[in-house]
Specification:
2 copies of one chain form a homodimer. Chain A has 386 residues and is α/β, with parallel strands linked by helices. The first copy, chain A, folds into 2 domains: 145 residues, Creatinase/prolidase N-terminal domain (Creatine Amidinohydrolase, Chain A, domain 1, 3-Layer(aba) Sandwich), CATH 3.40.350.10; 227 residues, Creatine Amidinohydrolase (Alpha-Beta Complex). Helices cover 32% and strands 19% of the residues of chain A. The first copy, chain A, has 10 helices and 16 strands. Chain A has a 6-stranded mixed sheet. In chain A, strand 5, helix 5 and strand 6 form a beta-alpha-beta unit. The longest helix of chain A has 20 residues. The mean pLDDT of chain A is 95. At the A-B interface, helix 8 and strand 7 of A face helix 8 and strand 7 of B.
Chain lengths: 386, 386
């Protein structure tokens, strides 16, 4: 057990100020008077407000980013004490939940004071975390124009600061140590559901604050589905087991997986694993500033197979398990230094034989001026045998 | 370690059919031609589709409930195999994420086929889990009228079936066993952050599938905030430590807490704890069919103190950590058999002395014809000493 309690938590105030100023510069260019933010990562990005209390859907939380000055928190009173520990000083509260006016008038008044037009993230991956009925009421009560945020928040969040990269690196190190201990919890005869529980335990022991996501699969000579819950079926000789995790430390995710052979792997499995590692290395080499997401996709798909229908072979990563660009044939986003992404090739174990057996592999990297830097300790071509 | 692997998972098909028929009866009364559902609990309620993959915000998932017949899943192709294991047979997919048309045309076409008006949950606690821009596009492309769902889905979900109650009871039993082992992980000198990790580990060992929520606090003679992340401050003699969890088994939550004294508790802490337990028992007695949420609130607040400003002294519970009614002074929801709620009084440790020290306590119950049934093993008046 080696928890990284030495690694610093949170961010310097200057980082939040820089994020705010960057947003305000973009708002000015778009003619926006305010941003209205409602989701956990959006609010946290500009404030540092970190709590698992968002798990409860019962209360709405709002952050208003004005054209100038610091953000204004419009939040349930239960969150005031914790918000006061951040750099935010203008904190306006109401006793939520309050059925007749659940923050609507307070938010509308704040927006009127700040002035519009009000930009709201409403593009790809953006959600409105408040009742739609209340949103319509706020629009009416404010009398302001509401429109999309022109992708301002997503674009800012896509480029990570060095402090953010350090947090993702720390999360990756935690999962690396947990994967290295797989032999303690997995092997022939152990139900996959027990492995899932044990893996979460290892991640916590190695320093994860919590484990929002794990997935995996195990089946003879490869698997077919990577999003199902674990069954109670015991692992058997000849199984290939894959475990994937999004573990969190200080609010930032890692997201990568590892494959394990239960007993000696078949030649096909060995070759497929080596192909995945090769595809990952090719992806790493292709992931340079100026390359497009679809270029990295194409480089990996050429090795791993599947062509245009290969799906999503990686994605952005940070305060959410997946965020930002997708390594697909359609995504023309241009890679920039500071972007943290996953490389996640998938391959048929026996290409062309259509047996429905696949394997997937995943690593995490950050785009740098000179080329990508590894955030995970990449797997070698040989699959680990348990 | 005693994982309940014997308890059955999932639900009989008849339960999903009954939920669907109940929704359709309410839809007919409201003149709705379809319901459009986008969130994890809503989709799971009608399908049984259970996966942690929702942690990724990158893909939208839709369920269309027609006026007659089974629901139609309109989902990313990556989810097709798992959805096919549910009772849903009409599964329509697109290769998400697809920037130019991320399910919009497929969903609009499905809605046109089913017919409107389309009801969308947009009241208290309801979120729209899709980009707002895509929602507007679907509305336009379908040519149908969209309106609120008249609270149909929330009202159905509020009344639990016996199978649902069994799942919540199983989650409660897991947490009860984990709390009983607190002496293994907590005590003088242990940092609270280490206790948080250890408690999650115990919950997993005792059978939780995952632990979406824990919170807690520890301070001398009581605490002041119950939603902050754990600090690395070691527990000290005289601290009162509270731990709260929403642990999940088979997709259903428990949500209750326990207080622990680090070393001998003061007389004030002992009295405050006993007062919380008394308030909880009074709440249990008041929680009868026909009583309103505000009546149960008032009964508890009379013992625990705080009056109208005491906040929320409990809430509904089920597929989400908090859902449905609130035990507040304003909530006039009428308790009905089958509702599962928490009783969660809070009290000042030294009433009237305004020292900012509070304690909270929480238990879970189900409303029955003859009165409420305990789902947790209620704490006695004496605080547990570690």
């Amino acid at each position: 057990m080696s928890v990284d309690i030495a690694a610093p938590r949170g961010f310097e105030r200057a980082e939040f100020e820089a994020r705010t100023h960057a947003a305000q510069a973009a708002m000015a260019a778009e003619g926006l008077g305010a941003l209205l933010l409602t989701t956990e990562p959006e609010v946290r990005y500009f404030t540092g407000y970190l709590t698992r209390f968002w798990e409860s859907p019962s209360r709405s939380w709002f952050l208003v980013l004005p054209a100038r000055g610091a953000p204004i928190a419009v939040i349930p009173s239960i969150g005031a004490a914790l918000m006061a520990q951040t750099w935010i000083s203008d904190i306006r509260t109401w006793p939520a939940p309050r059925p007749k006016d659940d923050g609507v008038s307070l938010l509308a008044e704040t927006l009127r004071e700040v002035g519009g037009p009000v930009g709201v993230p409403m593009g790809y991956e953006a959600h409105l975390r408040m009742p739609l009925g209340d949103y319509v009421r706020v629009q009416a009560a404010s009398g302001l124009e509401f429109r999309g945020d022109a992708g301002i928040v997503a674009a800012l969040r896509a480029i990570k600061s060095e402090a953010e990269i350090d947090k993702i690196r720390a999360a990756c190190a935690i999962a690396t140590r947990a994967y290295a201990r797989m032999g303690e919890i997995a092997g022939e005869g152990v139900p996959l559901s027990t492995v899932f529980r044990g893996f979460q335990r290892l991640l916590l022991e190695e320093g994860a604050d919590w484990v929002p996501y794990i997935s995996g699969a195990a089946a003879q000579g490869g698997y077919d589905d990577v999003i199902s819950p674990a069954s109670d079926m015991p692992l058997a000789l000849g199984d290939v087991m894959m475990l994937d995790t999004g573990a969190v430390r200080d609010g930032y995710f890692c997201d990568f997986d590892r494959n394990f052979a239960i007993g000696a792997p078949s030649a096909e499995v060995q070759v497929a694993h080596a192909r995945l590692i090769e595809a990952t290395e090719v992806g790493l080499a292709a992931a340079r500033p100026g390359a497009r997401a679809c270029d990295v996709f194409a480089a990996m798909a050429q090795i791993a197979g599947g062509g245009e229908t290969a799906g999503r072979l990686g994605h952005g990563l940070g305060m959410q398990l997946t965020e930002g660009l997708s390594l697909t044939a359609q995504d023309e986003s241009v890679l920039q230094p500071g972007m943290v992404i996953t490389l996640e090739p998938g391959t048929e174990v026996s290409p062309g034989q259509n047996l429905g057996k696949i394997m997937v592999h995943e690593e995490n990297i950050v785009i740098r001026e000179g080329g990508a830097e590894r955030l995970t300790q990449f797997s070698g071509p040989e699959i680990v045998v348990l």
